[in-house]
Amino acid sequence: MIGRKYGKLIILSEQGKNKRNEKLWLCKCDCGNITIVKTYNLSKGTVKSCGCIKTGRAKENLTGKKFNKLSVLYYCNSDKWRSSLWFCKCECGNNITVSTSNLKRGIVKSCGCLFNEWKHNKPKGSASPFYNNTIIRNKRKFDLESKYWAVQVKKRDNYTCQKCNNKPSNYLVSHHLYSYIKYKSLRYDINNGITLCQNCHQVFHEKFGFFNNTKKQYEEWINE
User: Fold this and answer.
1) CA dihedral sign of residues 102, 104, 106, 109
2) Exposed, middle or buried by CB within 10 Å (0-12, 13-18, 19+), for 23?
3) pTM of the model as a whole
């Protein structure tokens, strides 16, 4: 089948089989994108392009580009929101599928190894920003005032991440613009808080650390 054309797709090579033992083919679309399609979809004509026929325009081709630790190998398909999904190879050797938005906005920077590395090396004990030797070692005191502050920040921001504009169902964080540790007088100031999802919150602290965080850092990061 190599060299045959189905719709806008030309078969380049065989790509093994999927979990259902169906043969897969690496195809190149007329618009330039690379995608993988199984034999049945090609022969029956249910897949005729990389997806550009449905939208009426060619999708942005990220093949060969690198985003942080991820190198884009080829286009996979689109999710239910019609966001393009790309098959990427991480510097550590693992593979992962990531959407265009998460790649370009830096929300996903690796297969997960970057977070594991940060988690392993993050400050612990007295060096941790959550350390408080007057209460419980390595834990912040979440009293009623802290909880009230966190809820008010999220409520003001309509329970929406102010970086990626998503409303994740799993976890939202009330982030202090000015560090919780250094700026004690601003700890419970609603104007010193901003709502972020867990992923964006992690990305921010990976870049700026936990100590001496300021509003200027946030403004620089949010405008990237």
Assistant:
1) positive
2) middle
3) 0.41
